[in-house]
């Protein structure tokens, strides 16, 4: 060992004896859930005299450090650097700070700075620090299932794609989303969805026809599909169906059972698709994430397949969410259903000539999903305003004339699973006030006619006498 080496070691020992040693370590914290209490523990070892312990919260990618708590060993006091109304830190033991009811905004890195007095000067402070990352998780706040591009008409002659969108909001980190049909997980084919920029309604989806795959058929729904065929295997004729019963079995074969709805002057008919799809579809799945400013993520998962109204009617689809902050999955479910038995309300109940009549769809005899499309037409003519048809849940007829008495109006309610026509008849009663006004006008006109005849007769008489 050289003389230089000996001198270097001797200087290092002298410096160490003058300054002392200081090491700082922080125990790692496992992920916590919003609302839980977190303890930040700063461990340090030193042979010097403690000056202070300061906790910082690091923000803006490490460029900004905000003091949150200080322990002053000189005066044996501690204080928070947050405003009184935001003070949520409690000193447990000098270097240990507790954060009750953590929020998503508490997520991020924290640093513990420890200062000791320099042995040589007794005035200089030697500092050391350690850091830890607090990962705050938040369970999803809401989950919902909607149909994309609705309301949409019923396709009578060809298959069409159908998309369910599961919207999960408020989770951190992003949750795992999957679909089930009738309680069974759906085997899906994943595809990449176009990025969702500034989402307003999630219009990105799958377009065009999709190929079909085979999977285990639901016997009950297969039976429904076969019930649309007659005994010869040909498509059954369209018929008027009562909401509570379908086809009435006859002696030799099934025959249509025409009935009318309970509502007086209202006839209900339901139309089935005129094509039968023989296999089940591929299910295509995609998911997009939309980050929010509070650190949470909104997930929009899409399930697209080629709709088969015969098999998919009354099918239960559920969207389930798994998240590390949840003890059990969240779930939202919808039952696909075509509209049945629309209920119409006409106001006023006894319309008179000159009244404004409103015919409104009050609801259905079943839960309808997705939202139906409503179209109004007049049987055998145009609507009062001259148009052929009008969309919406309500038809308004302003100042109805007597000529509309007995006219029939059709409300077509349809969604991709089926279509229903409801007919209601408008009865227009005479309006006494209008009749009285008309009668007075007629009387005045007749009086004027009589006076005119008398004057004419007098003139003729005088003329005859003069000649």
Automatic annotation (TrEMBL):
SMART domains: IG. Its main location: membrane. It is found in: Postsynaptic cell membrane. The keyword Transmembrane does not apply. PROSITE patterns: IG_LIKE (PS50835). Residues 35-128, 140-335, 342-427 form the Ig-like domain. The keyword Disulfide bond applies. Keywords: Cell membrane, Disulfide bond, Glycoprotein, GPI-anchor, Immunoglobulin domain, Lipoprotein, Membrane, Postsynaptic cell membrane, Repeat, Signal, Synapse. Coiled coil: none annotated. PANTHER family: IMMUNOGLOBULIN SUPERFAMILY MEMBER 21, NECTIN-RELATED. Involved in synaptic inhibition in the brain. Selectively regulates inhibitory presynaptic differentiation through interacting with presynaptic NRXN2. This is Immunoglobulin superfamily member 21. It comes from Aldrovandia affinis.
């Amino acid at each position: 060992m050289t003389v230089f080496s000996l001198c270097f070691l001797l200087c290092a020992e002298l410096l160490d004896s003058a300054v002392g040693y200081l090491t700082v370590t922080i125990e790692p914290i496992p992920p916590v859930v919003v609302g839980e209490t977190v303890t930040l523990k700063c461990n340090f070892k030193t042979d010097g005299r403690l000056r202070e312990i300061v906790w910082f919260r690091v923000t803006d990618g490490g460029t900004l450090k905000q003091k949150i708590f200080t322990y002053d060993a000189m005066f044996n006091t501690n204080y928070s650097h947050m405003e009184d109304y935001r003070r949520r830190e409690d000193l447990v033991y000098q270097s240990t700070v507790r954060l009750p009811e953590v929020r998503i905004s508490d997520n991020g890195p924290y640093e513990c700075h420890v200062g000791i007095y320099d042995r040589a000067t007794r005035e200089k402070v030697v500092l050391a620090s350690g850091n830890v990352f607090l990962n705050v998780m938040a369970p999803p706040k809401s989950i919902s299932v909607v149909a994309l591009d609705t309301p949409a008409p019923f396709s009578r002659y060809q298959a069409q794609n159908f998309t369910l969108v599961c919207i999960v909001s408020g989770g951190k980190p992003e949750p795992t989303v999957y679909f089930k049909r009738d309680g069974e997980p759906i085997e899906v084919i994943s595809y990449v969805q176009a990025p969702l920029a500034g989402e307003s309604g999630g219009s990105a989806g799958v377009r065009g026809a999709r190929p079909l795959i085979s999977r285990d058929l639901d016997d009950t729904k297969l039976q429904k599909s076969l019930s649309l065929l007659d005994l010869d295997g040909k498509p059954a004729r369209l018929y008027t169906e009562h909401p509570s019963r379908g086809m009435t079995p006859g002696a030799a074969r099934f025959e249509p059972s025409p009935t009318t709805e309970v509502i007086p002057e209202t006839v209900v008919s339901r139309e089935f698709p005129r094509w039968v799809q023989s296999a089940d579809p591929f299910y295509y799945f995609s998911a997009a994430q939309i980050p929010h400013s509070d650190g949470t993520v909104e997930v929009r998962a899409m399930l697209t397949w080629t709709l088969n109204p015969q098999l998919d009617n009354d099918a239960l689809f559920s969207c389930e969410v798994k998240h590390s902050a949840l003890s059990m999955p969240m779930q939202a479910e919808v039952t696909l259903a075509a509209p049945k038995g629309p209920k119409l309300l006409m106001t006023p109940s006894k319309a008179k000539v000159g009244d404004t009549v409103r015919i409104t769809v009050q609801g259905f005899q079943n839960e309808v999903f997705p939202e139906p499309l409503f179209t109004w037409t007049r049987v055998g003519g145009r609507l009062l305003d001259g148009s052929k048809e009008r969309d919406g849940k309500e038809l308004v007829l302003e100042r109805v004339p007597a000529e509309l008495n007995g006219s029939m109006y059709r409300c077509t309610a349809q969604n991709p699973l089926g279509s229903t026509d409801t007919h209601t008849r408008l009865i227009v009663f005479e309006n006494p006030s209008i009749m009285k006004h008309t009668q007075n006008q007629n009387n005045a006109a007749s009086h004027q006619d009589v006076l005119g005849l008398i004057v004419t007769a007098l003139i003729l008489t005088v003329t005859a006498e003069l000649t």
